[in-house]
Specification:
Distance between the termini of chain B: 29 Å
Largest interface: A-B, 36 and 31 residues
Distance between the termini of chain A: 22 Å
Strand content of chain A: 15-25%
Number of domains of chain A: 1
CATH topology of chain A: TIM Barrel
Number of domains of chain B: 2
Strand content of chain B: 25-35%
Largest sheet of chain B: 7 strands, antiparallel
CATH architecture of chain A: Alpha-Beta Barrel
Oligomer: heterodimer
CATH superfamily of chain A: Aldolase class I
Structural class of chain B: alpha/beta
Number of helices of chain B: 6
Strand order of the largest sheet of chain B: 4-3-7-1-2-6-5
Order of helices and strands of chain B: EEHEEEEHEEHEHEEHEHEEEE
Shape of chain A: globular
CATH class of chain A: Alpha Beta
Radius of gyration of chain B: 18 Å
Number of strands of chain B: 16
Bound molecules: flavin-adenine dinucleotide, flavin mononucleotide, FE2/S2 (inorganic) cluster
Radius of gyration of chain A: 18 Å
Order of helices and strands of chain A: EEEEEEHEHEEEHEHEEEEEHEHEHH
Helix content of chain B: 10-25%
Chain lengths: ~300, ~280
């Protein structure tokens, strides 16, 4: 019998300078700034919270409808609605800091300068474990080319951010590229602490009765179980090519789903859309990973990472 | 706000395509206010993926009741749920109707399935169930027995339906001793036309209306809001939008308000009509 008692199981994990008490986070944009879910679950039990994207100025977001359901998937076009960094620091972060969990702040912008000024604003702020750089945004200075689809833009942005801030940088990769490992490598060379993947997959859905797109923004990002195999594949490919710790996400609904990412190379996972379906998902995934380790006789979580045969 | 596995006590068709489901949900029933909703997971598994929102239609003791129309996959699955089984629900969610003390005359306007939350409101207004006073809020979202003289409160309910057969909750309203007027689109019962047209006709006759509460298709609500604006009568509407989380976290369910986007699930679903930018609807 190689079974471990649950007490001896160590779920803590380090992603460079970022320490997590367990490898299960909640994904940006699916958990707001924690206030609402705090009414339903104990946030102290989470490995970390990746907060909704913050921008330099407040953003109103896209016209409704912003959501459309597809088979086992969800299309969204929220448009980065957020109150801006000042309100975030004044009204949202103090609440989040009350919890014993890593706070990872997702930052977004339309120009390099916006990211850089955001990083400046956040640099001296206490209680932020990492910045997650959302590079799935169009760069208005480069004719709307998405930062994260171009290795050079990604390198330049991450490099400059690293020069401005001491906070560890997690670069969040978009799957809407031909070869995700190229962007992963560019991020590594630029000094990223870790990578997170994947952001949503670009999609579209049409109401054939009204002959209108189902989203006000016409196109949107697909999330949920429908994208999981894409995300697992990208995790596995990226794990082969870079030496950075990886945070996996994309359609995780239970521990088995999470373990797919971990075996493919993820050092941590994040729960996104599944929070909407069952707010307890992240907590159940933590329990399920423990159970798996117990059954497989594994004491340290890090032994699971990339354990694929 | 609670997430519970609620036992199904009853789930039956009342007229074609329309069902009532009664759930054992003590925590939710204890706190539910008219206009609030629950977010229901129609099945385990991931198609349909998301929960579905439904207004609380009745709340008595430890039970709540939902009145729903089958329109797609989720409601279809719900209609096939057997008594005794449990379903996962989140609630009570959102802001309900807000009623000030000193109310004398209120008109409730229901279009089709929009009657669901309005029955709950009428029942509480008619004083059938005790309504606790909510402390600390600017207005009272709840009336207690002393703040309203029941004998003076005049409740008029307008029920709109396509045909006579599709009129919902008529018997329930009759039992509340409220005044009822009916509009059918095909004229098979009473007024022929839309319930908003009936409302318009009555409004020109009725005096001293303190409040109008409405729920139904978006265009009906828009029409009613415009009329109320013209007549300067306070009006509250219960709006719908596609929902993700249902609790205010995802910003997926917004509609355009006068001051920016509003989350239907958290800032609503009941809004003051003048909070909404109706030209965007
Ligand atoms: C706050 C709130 C309270 C509600 N209360 C009730 C209620 O008491 N009783 C009731 O029967 N229904 C109510 N609804 C509507 C109900 O949520 C939808 O009918 C249900 O989600 C449809 O699910 P489905 O899977 O059966 O249909 P789907 O397959 O998802 O959709 C079928 C059709 O209905 C349309 N539709 C679905 N949901 C909505 C929506 N939210 N708004 C506009 N159009 C929609 C779709 O566009 C599609 O054409 C409420 C909605 C909200 C937001
Ligand atoms: C409603 C919604 C809003 C999101 N907002 C953001 C965001 O602000 N920043 C970001 O980097 N990712 C955002 N995402 C992407 C998620 O963080 C995640 O990468 C993606 O949804 C895949 O995970 P999932 O399938 O588990 O949801 C959002 C996703 C959803 C569904
Ligand atoms: S449904 Fe998520 S904010 Fe309203």
């Amino acid at each position: 019998m190689s079974s471990e008692s649950k007490k001896n199981i160590d779920l803590s994990v380090r992603l460079g300078r970022i320490t997590l008490k367990n490898p299960v986070l909640v994904a940006s944009g699916t958990f707001g700034y924690g206030e609402e879910y705090a009414e339903l679950i104990n946030l102290n039990e989470l490995g970390g919270i990746m907060v909704k994207a913050v921008t330099l100025e407040p953003r109103e977001g896209n016209p409704p409808p912003r959501l459309a359901e597809t088979p086992a998937g969800l299309l969204n076009a929220i448009g980065l609605e957020n109150p801006g960094v000042d309100v975030f620091l004044k009204e949202k972060l103090p609440f989040l800091r009350r919890f014993q969990t890593a706070i990872i702040v997702n930052i977004a912008g339309e120009k390099e300068e916006e990211y850089l000024r955001l990083a400046e604003r956040l640099n001296q702020v206490k209680g932020i474990s990492a910045l997650e750089v959302n590079i799935s945004c169009p760069n208005v200075k480069e004719k709307g080319l998405i930062f994260g689809t171009d290795p050079e833009q990604t390198f330049s942005l991450v490099k400059k951010l690293g020069e401005i801030t001491d906070i560890p940088l997690v670069v969040k990769l978009t799957p809407n590229v031909t070869d995700i490992t190229k962007i992963a490598q560019a991020s590594q060379e630029a000094g990223a602490e870790a990578l997170s993947l994947i952001n949503t997959v670009l999609g579209m859905s049409i109401d054939v009765e009204t002959r209108k797109p189902k989203l006000g923004n016409i196109t949107g990002g697909l999330s949920g179980p429908a994208i999981r195999p894409i995300a697992v594949r990208m995790m596995w490919q990226t794990f082969q090519k870079v030496n950075l710790p990886l945070i996996g996400m994309g359609g995780i609904t239970d521990a088995e789903d999470a373990l797919e990412f971990i075996l493919a190379g993820a050092s941590a996972v994040a729960i996104g859309t599944a929070n909407f379906i069952d707010p307890k998902t992240a907590l159940e995934v933590i329990e399920g990973i423990k159970q798996y380790m117990q059954v497989k006789g594994i004491k340290n979580f890090k032994d699971l990472i990339g354990w694929l045969k | 706000m609670y997430q519970i596995k609620a036992k199904i006590i009853l789930n039956k068709k009342i007229i074609p395509e329309h069902y009532k489901i009664c759930l054992d949900a003590p925590e939710i029933a204890g706190e539910a206010k008219p206009g609030q909703f629950v977010h229901i997971r129609a099945r385990e598994g991931y198609d349909p993926l998301l929960r579905r929102p439904f207004s609380i239609h009745k709340s008595q003791g430890e039970k709540i009741e939902i009145l729903y129309k089958v329109v797609g996959k989720g409601t279809q699955l719900l209609s096939r749920k057997k008594i005794g089984k449990k379903i996962d629900i989140l609630g009570p969610l959102g802001q309900g109707f807000k009623v000030n003390p000193g109310l004398e005359k209120v008109i409730l306007v229901a279009g089709g399935i929009g009657v669901a939350p309005l029955y709950f409101l009428a029942e509480r207004l008619a004083g059938y169930t005790h309504w606790k006073a909510e402390k600390g809020s600017k207005r009272q979202s709840i009336i207690n027995d002393s703040s309203i003289n029941k004998n003076q409160l005049d409740i008029l309910v307008l029920l709109g339906a396509e045909t006579k057969e599709k009129i919902l909750c008529l018997e329930d309203f009759k039992n509340l001793n409220v005044k009822i007027e009916i509009a059918t689109e095909d004229g098979s019962e009473s007024f022929k036309g839309l319930v908003s047209d009936l409302f318009f006709q009555l409004l020109s006759k009725e005096s001293q209306v303190n409040l109008v509460c409405a729920c139904g298709p978006a265009l009906m609500l828009k029409r009613i809001a415009e009329l109320n604006y013209r007549y300067k009568i306070p009006c509250q509407v219960s709006l719908e939008q596609r929902m993700g989380c249902g609790i205010g976290a995802c910003l997926g369910c917004t509609i355009k308000g006068q001051t920016g986007y509003l989350r239907v699930c958290r800032n609503g679903p009941v809004f003051e009509a003048d909070e909404i930018q109706w030209n965007e609807i």
